[in-house]
Amino acid sequence: MPENYPDETRATARVGNLDIEILHGRSADGSAEHLAIRVEAVPSFAAFGRMIELSNPFLFWMRFAGLAWTPWLPALQPPTKRLEDKSDSAD
Questions:
Q1: How many domains does the chain have?
Q2: Residue 46: pLDDT band by 50, 70, 90 thresholds?
Q3: Is residue 90 situated within a structural domain?
């Protein structure tokens, strides 16, 4: 396909260290359509996998759960002040 083929659409994005390119177009005779998606990671996917292997996912989930529950923990404690009975205070 020529470099500047009129029916070719290209979209590129960079998300963090990930390059994504999507190419859509038609064949030169117009009888077929193609879609290509290219994903490139820097560092490589293998390096990312090694990083995940070295990390401790259990510790990550413990910290995540702790942060998620922190705002709710005070609501689970019993009240420290007793409510006064209003019927006794009217006398």
A1: 1
A2: confident
A3: no
